[in-house]
Amino acid sequence: MTTFDAETERMILANQANWDARTPIHVASAFYGLDGSRPAASWLADYEWADLGDLDGVDLLHLQCHLGAETIALAERGARAVGLDISGESVRQARRLAADRRLDIEYVRADVYDAVGAVDGRTFDIVYTGKGALCYLPDLDPWASAVAQLLRPGGALYVVEFHPLLYALGVVPPKDGGEELTLRGDFLSGRGAEERDATRTYTDGPALTEATVAYEWRHELGEVVTALAGAGLRVDTVREDPRLPWPRWSSMVQDATGWFTLPADQPRIPLLYAVKAVR
Ligand SMILES: C[S@@+](CC[C@H](N)C(=O)[O-])C[C@H]1O[C@@H](n2cnc3c(N)ncnc32)[C@H](O)[C@@H]1O
């Protein structure tokens, strides 16, 4: 169990309230397509499925699972899945969504830093996490230590996260009405917590009416790999990929796999990365 100073604990609680407030908007959103309009499997890239391998009968823990979009996909492929999230509203809705699909997924409400105790010391073949998860964690060393304790010997962490370059890029509207990507934010970490106005979430739907402030922490790719190595895990693969599961910018085009990338005449840059680390 990890404890932070009072100010950091306040930020984590603010994030919990913010995610509770976002949850009903996300459940109803076209973005998540939880009414069946978006197949759960499409939230994972082709390379994720390849790296994860056969999931039949595999014990899998999904950290920071939110509504369980990816948890559902992993359970549909045969994993015995447990999802964990700090937001009680997310967990409540995730349980309902799994029940609607007759999937036997266990959901646990807990801070990821308390995950080992929250799952009663159980261990897993795969710990899966990412796509907007690590940015809510103030410190990656205790996170990596918790992940190592959650894995069986030979078990693997699979973390798929937005690339630091994605966070650093912003849009400048040129005069012709198009949009141009430019460096607008930090690529490197080092500034500590960033307070963000989260009145508008990233999905379609209305604005939040409460708990509108969220806190994020930047983490470089090197920091992630170093934290995992420091926790005694063996880093097997680090991938960088130019695609996203949704169109972050209006210029993005859908490829044959259904994911989105910048047009071919634009620089080929990484927008997601995936790290597989084995205990
Ligand atoms: C963007 S979601 C990531 C899940 C998935 N990729 C998605 O897009 O639906 C981020 C999740 O992290 C959870 N979260 C934030 N801080 C957390 C913490 N300290 N412990 C556990 N969950 C946390 C939030 O409640 C939210 O559900």
CATH homologous superfamily?
A: Vaccinia Virus protein VP39
CATH class: Alpha Beta
Helix content: 25-40%
What is the distance, rounded to the nearest whole angstrom, between the alpha carbons of the first and last residues? 20 Å
Q: So how many helices?
A: 8
**What's the number of extended β-strand segments?**
13
Beta percentage is 15-25%
Summary keywords:
single chain; 279 residues; alpha/beta; Rossmann fold; seven-stranded mixed beta sheet; 25% strand; binds S-adenosylmethionine
Task: Explain what this protein looks like in three dimensions.
By secondary structure, this protein is α/β, with parallel strands linked by helices. The chain has a single domain, classed as Vaccinia Virus protein VP39 (Rossmann fold, 3-Layer(aba) Sandwich). The protein contains 8 helices and 13 strands. The protein has helices at 6-27, 46-52, 69-76, 88-100, 115-118, 140-150, 164-168, 221-230; strands at residues 59-63, 80-85, 106-109, 124-130, 151-162, 169-172, 180-183, 194-197, 213-216, 234-241, 253-254, 260-261, 272-278. The strands form 4 sheets. The protein has a 7-stranded mixed β-sheet, sandwiched between helices. Strands 6-7 form a two-stranded antiparallel sheet. The two termini are 20 Å apart. Residues 12, 15, 19, 64-67, 69-70, 85-87, 90, 111-112, 131-133, 136 line the site of S-adenosylmethionine (SAM).
